[in-house]
Amino acid sequence: MKKRILTGDRPTYDSFHLGNYIGSLKNRVKLQEEYETFILIADMHALTTHFNKTDTLEGNIRGLMLGYLSVGLDPNKVTFCLQSKLPETVELAYFLGTLTPRAVLERQPALKEKLDQGEQDTFALYSYPVLMAADILLPKANLVPVGKDQKAHVEFARDIAIKFNNLYGGSLPAGRQVFPIPEPLIGEVPTLPGTDGQAKMGKSLNNAIFLTDSAQEVEKKVMSMYTDPKRIHPTDPGTVEGNPVFIYLDAFAAENFKFQISNFKLLYTKGQVGDIEVKKYLVKVLNNFLDPIRKRRAEYENKPELVERILEEGIQKARAEAQKTLVGVKKAMKLDYFNN
Ligand code: TRP
Predict the structure, then answer these.
(1) I need a surface site. Which of 54, 192, 211, 330 has the fewest CB within 10 A?
(2) 337 domain residue, yes or no
């Protein structure tokens, strides 16, 4: 049987940028071939920071769905689901909460970080990892691909699964335990810098190129990109390493562009090619990369009912799995009384 993956995003934005692509989407597209993949839109988790912006959620959910489908996540291979349509999540989270020491939640680094950013100190923010553990354990995921910042949460899910199995699965033979033990899968990808040369591309940093940007927008952003600041004239020897223009070229060039790129690198270090020429080439490379994504997106944008159906079918499938899991959970906990 194929191993199962679950990963998710909070719908606090409506479009992905190149950094999201390199950091996670690209990997998901690859993993869908090998694993049975669940992608969860975590709208209840979004409420921890967006309880006063609930009017943005529906549009963001649609935007994320279009983003997933446009990069080639295949609805025949991926189960897309929406957290608030899986009420079993809250039920399981409660049971997991009964096994969660308060001190463990107090120690979570993500909580401190969010509070430092000025987020409200609510019960939902505090119990974030418990809900996330329920997300992961409901479909009995084996692997959870996430960024470094989420690793501690997946480890929490792992610990709670072990604890649950030990406590309630004692009489079950090994291999028939209630929960498989989920593992984090941390991609070793370097973070993509922003167009301004900042270490990280970010939605709110005004340094991002979005998968939804038009060819003209891409051109405008690239032509004003940060390059080697020490280089004043095209005849000055330039630095390729750490130069965002070359980092993007390496990250997004199709095979047929690669020869020219190694050429440019050589010329650049010798001061024999100008930034403008290299940037114009990057515009070509990026638009070539984005064109099929734009095309797929336009197809789905024209069929909003299809996108909705894909999500609905995913929800149905995820819900059936969730209900099955909960039956097993309650049985193991001996809470299956008064069932007939
Ligand atoms: N916490 C994740 C984030 O902020 C989103 C998320 C919610 C998630 N549930 C999940 C990720 C389950 C992986 C598995 O990005």
Answers:
(1) 54
(2) no
Question: Same structural domain for residues 319 and 229?
Answer: no
Number of domains in the chain: 2
Domain ranges, residue 66: 4-192+303-332
Query: 0.85 exceeded by the pTM?
Result: yes
Mean pLDDT calculated for residue range 233-254: 95
Q: Say if residues 39 and 73 touch (Cβ distance below 8 Å).
A: yes
Ligand 1 pocket check for 6: Cβ under 6 Å: yes
> Tokens for 203?
């939605």
The percent of residues above 90 in pLDDT, for the chain, comes to: 93
**Are 326 and 92 within 8 A, CB to CB?**
yes
* String of DSSP letters for 229-260: TT--STTS----TT-HHHHHHHHH--GGGHHH
Residue of 10, 41, 44, 130 with the most ligand 1 atoms within 8 Å of its CB, for mutation = 10
